[in-house]
Amino acid sequence: MVGEPQDDCLFCKIVAGQIPADVVQETETTVAFRDINPQAPTHILVIPKVHHRDAAALAAAEPGIAADILREAGQVAAEEKLDSYRIVFNTGSGAGQTVFHAHAHLLGGRGMQWPPG
Ligand code: AMP
Ligand code: ZN
Questions:
Q1: What CATH number is attached to the domain comprising 63?
Q2: Domain tally for the chain?
Q3: Which of 52, 101, 103, 105 is catalytic?
Q4: Number of the ligand 1 atom closest to the C-alpha atom of 39
Q5: Coil, strand, or helix at residue 67?
Q6: Which domain holds residue 96?
Q7: Which atom of ligand 1 is nearest to the CA of 100?
Q8: Nearest-5° angle of CA 77, CA 93, CA 14?
């Protein structure tokens, strides 16, 4: 069923506590944890507890939870004392998505270039 945990999904396993993660904040609908391969001094992933393959699929199916992800990213940024930061949703392998469970990257603590690579 859409949104149900997937046996082969790394982030569903983190949500279930089957794989450890450095969790910084958890809500009823989201989990925020530090990226294992940080690309900035602060690099935190904010994920929905429900499984959807990417951010657009999440927003189409459960718009309230998509909004929760953005609100949580902002709250974590505030707790990390970031006044400038970037929120990234890689979508599709060509854009660098490697885990097909929707997630926001919250990146901060260094200068950022535009356009992104
Ligand atoms: P993406 O490439 O946009 O799909 O992002 C997936 C992210 O998950 C990458 O930045 C990885 O470094 C990160 N990642 C993979 N495995 C883990 C893990 N066990 N704990 C925390 N972050 C992870
Ligand atoms: Zn999943």
A1: 3.30.428.10
A2: 1
A3: 103
A4: 10
A5: helix
A6: 10-108
A7: 4
A8: 50
